[in-house]
Amino acid sequence: MVAELNFNNPTVVALARYGALVVGKMLFLLPLTAFFRVTRKVYANPEDARFASVGSAKPEAQIKKMLVQDEMVERVRRCVLNDMENIIPFLLLAPLYILTGPADSTALLLFQIFVGSRFVHTITYLFGMQPFRALAFTAGLCVNFYFVFHIFQNSHF
User: Fold this and answer.
1) Which pLDDT value is given to residue 54?
2) Model confidence pTM above 0.90
């Protein structure tokens, strides 16, 4: 059976909700990066450092000192990159998975595992908590691999 991708399908509704949750979580990290850059006075570009120093007439040497890497800024940035490497495949694979006509309960469970794993991954990444971060990453990756396997197994190419 091939499922339809419309909002009459409860699995599509679940994907829309869980997809919005996980993308919203990823978007939350963007202003968090900016927050750490501003509060720690570390910037990626000279023009950003100059803009942050408007009115203080800092010499170019001081501007260059503001162009350093900060561990927390970089940690949040790496977390965002990891999200993009995992959430984008999820959002591409999940609709294809739905088209194979899985049981609604199975699809819902997989969506919940993936989204839960990404929330746990973010928290454990920001606070440097291994091995929990690796376990959360693996759980989400397994869901994506399951989607790929299921799509190939149940699609008629």
Assistant:
1) 63
2) no
Level-2 CATH architecture, domain 10-33+69-154: Up-down Bundle (1.20)
Predicted pLDDT at 2? 64
The Cα–Cα gap between 78 and 69 comes to 13
Evaluate whether 93 touches 111 at the Cβ level (below 8 Å). Answer: no
Contact 100, 149 (CB under 8 A): no
Rounded Cα gap, residues 136 and 57, in angstroms: 46
- Establish whether the linkage from the previous residue to 89 is cis, with ω within 30° of 0: no
Domain boundaries, the chain: 10-33+69-154
Distance, in Å, from the CA atom of 144 to the CA atom of 87, rounded to the nearest integer, reads 9
Token pair of 145, please? 């691999």
Rounded CA separation 42/70 (Å): 7
Question: What is the H or E stretch that residue 51 is in?
Answer: helix 46-52
- Rounded Cα distance, 83 and 32, in Å: 14
Q: List, run by run, the mean pLDDT of 10-residue segments along the chain (157 residues).
A: 80 97 96 89 80 67 73 92 97 96 96 98 96 98 98 83
Helix (H, G, I), strand (E, B) or coil at 45: coil
